[in-house]
Amino acid sequence: MQSPISESESLAARVERLEKQYRWLNTEIATERLVLVDSDGTTRGTLRMTEGVPSLILYDTGGNVRAILRVSDEGPALHLLNPKTGAAFELRVNESGPDLSLFDRNGKQRLALNVLGSPLDEAGSPSLLMREPDGTAAVVVTSPEGRGNINLSDASKHNTEIGLHVDRNGPILVCMNEGKMLWSAP
Length: 186
Description:
Number of helices: 1
Strand content: over 45%
CATH topology of the largest domain: Outer Surface Protein A, domain 3
Number of strands: 14
Oligomer: single chain
């Protein structure tokens, strides 16, 4: 049986050890890069400063970047990537509004969906933009100031399009070729 003094010393030592552990757990850790590895030592994630912006980067088992979350002064951005096909998804939110983009295997933006505001339109105007592989707009759907617009363009011909526009006076259908109006109704 321990004496009351040694029990008290033992208890005091255990309390001191617990206090040190608590202080260690309560300590702030400052670093420019934190690396997350799996049981094989393969990097699966990093939390780091990239070009002055905090970034969380996640990797697959092959070491390929699959997801990036960044927060800059312009706003947050999420990028999802497929390293096999090169296709990507990007979601951004900035002062103008939210913006979602889809990229093809060549890294070209093929679809954009956004609600962008301006000083004249504080609520924002939704828009959908579909692009050809060369970047030319093929389909544009917008709703500026509550008016609907749909433009279908032929990427192989300059300024060839069919447009359906709705304004205060009603719908207008316009057909253009090479920048010249061929037909409109009404």
